[in-house]
Amino acid sequence: MGVRHVVVFRFRQGTTADQSATIAAELRKLPAAIPEIASYTVGEDAGLVEGTWDFAVIADFASEADYFTYREHPDHQAVIARHIQPVVDERASAQIVVP
Q: What's the distance, CA 1 to chain centroid?
């Protein structure tokens, strides 16, 4: 059984489009550094409906062990510390077991 990891962020007021684009660019580098990532989609909300979160990450892993490798990986932690934490006001996540 695999794991799908879903994260959404709400940015702090004043977060710029450049900061959001940097987050996306830095996250998109992670699959090259973390081979345990089976699928990885990141990006800003499309703005189709009101009340949604600002940014989302959807990552798939073949196993729980692969998810935990990603979660703790130093490259992933560096992106969080350098680019995400400084601008995120709220964060929500879920890990879904997928067949």
A: 21
In the chain, what percentage of residues exceed pLDDT 90?
A: 98
Residues in Cβ contact with 7 at an 8 Å cutoff, skipping those fewer than 6 apart: 56, 57, 91, 92, 93
Residue 37, Cβ density class (10 Å: 0-12 exposed, 13-18 middle, ≥19 buried): buried
> Does pTM top 0.70 for this prediction?
yes
CA 68 to chain centre: 14
Q: Shortest CA distance to 44 belongs to which of 61, 80, 19? A: 19
Domains identified in the chain and CATH numbers: 2-98 (3.30.70.100)
Question: Measured between alpha carbons, how far is 67 from 98 in angstroms, rounded to an integer?
Answer: 13
pLDDT digit string (tens) for 52-73?
A: 999 999 999 999 999 999 999 9
Helix (H, G, I), strand (E, B) or coil at 86: coil
Instruction: List all residues 6 or more positions away from 77 whose beta carbon is below 8 Å from its beta carbon.
Output: none
